[in-house]
Amino acid sequence: QKEVEQNSGPLSVPEGAIASLNCTYSDRGSQSFFWYRQYSGKSPELIMFIYSNGDKEDGRFTAQLNKASQYVSLLIRDSQPSDSATYLCAVPGGGADGLTFGKGTHLIIQP
Amino acid sequence: ETGVTQSPTHLIKTRGQQVTLRCSSQSGHNTVSWYQQALGQGPQFIFQYYREEENGRGNFPPRFSGLQFPNYSSELNVNALELDDSALYLCASSLASGYEQYFGPGTRLTVT
User: Fold this and answer.
1) CA atoms of B42 and B61, how far apart (whole Å)
2) Does A93 lie at the interface with B, CB-CB under 8 angstroms?
3) % of chain A at pLDDT higher than 90
4) Which one of B29, B45, B59, B107 makes the best mutation probe of the A interface by having the most chain A beta carbons within 10 Å?
5) Residues near A46 by beta carbon (within 8 Å), at least 6 away in sequence
6) Contact between B97 and A99 using a beta-carbon 8 Å cutoff
7) Inter-chain touch B103–A44, beta carbons under 8 Å
8) How many CB pairs under 8 A join A and B?
9) What pLDDT does A52 receive?
10) Percent of chain B scoring above 70 in pLDDT
11) What digits encode the pLDDT tens for the residues B69-98?
């Protein structure tokens, strides 16, 4: 069974700094990786996805994938208080293409 | 473009009862997946529907069942509700099986 591991936090980062969120996964065959942001009481929102090794940038967000180390990370540059949320890492494989999620990392941006 | 919608927003049921939750997929999406999210946990995959057929299932008992309709909307049915079924139920749609999934706002189910 595929597993996804994340540090639950909370991870506290000062406003304007870079927040670094990490995720490891168990299945070497995983081909795609997703980052979701979830505000308290709300549903997950897809913010990044990455399929190939290396970096993918979208605005202030950068996803980094290292398949050899089975490691995917999310960097948030110029962190804002509105970035405070739980960040969920997910890989396909929960059955067909159902996603397997980590428990999420709770990020707090301190003004 | 209309996003994923779910109804109802909140629901309170008694143990042993049955419940039906509904989901309308995003325009152009033919695949719907259902997830259960307990407090403090990541979502857990229940099942996926693709073109009206169940396309995969997570580790949930048969009392969790579903349907997908020709317009790609979907229902999740849960029979014989248990207290542990209290959770946020999320529906996600995607362009096709294997593509990125976009979540609806969820239905908060409380079983007493």
Assistant:
1) 19
2) no
3) 79
4) B45
5) A34, A35, A36, B100, B101, B102, B103
6) no
7) yes
8) 72
9) 83
10) 99
11) 999 999 999 999 999 999 999 999 998 777
